[in-house]
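not sure who needs this but someone in the group chat was asking about MOR1B protein from Furnarius figulus so here u go. i didnt clean anything up, its just raw.
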Amino acid sequence: MGDNAVLACPLKPNVTLVTWKISPKVGNYCTLGYRTDTNETGRRSCSDSMNWKFRPDLDPALEIRQVGIAQEGNYTCEVVSGEGNFQNMYHLTVLVPPQVSLYCDEQGSPVCEAATGKPAARVSWVLGSNSPLEEEGHISGTVTVLSRFTACSTNVTSTTCMVFHPAGNWSESIEC
């Protein structure tokens, strides 16, 4: 999320046509094309964030600037050359790291929150807790996960929350 992504497309000898076909989960189908005989590029319904990484005659890679959830979907590069037709297919999935916070609630219990992550984060406690996770899905496709620490013993004064996510892992401690 927010980074640039580059999708490779093989450059073959005697290329006559290169086409990127982009089918996002949300929004319009888009194409980028390059014809070598006329040295022309064309685009249809593509946002300005998608373009050739360099010159398509030297490297037909696609660059997506500041990737967001809206760019998730299928990307296909088709190359037509004297050797035949070639395809590279990609499925782009965007990871959104959660915003992690650890605080004490009104009852003095630790609460660990992994807000607006994609996919949903996994939350656990070092000392263990029998508290069920609360999940809230958002229209953006992100998920907030909340866990309230419920101690098995009343003499627990400090605990550590661990958050696991494909974009990274976090660990924080608190004393309530």
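also The radius of gyration is 23 Å. if thats useful
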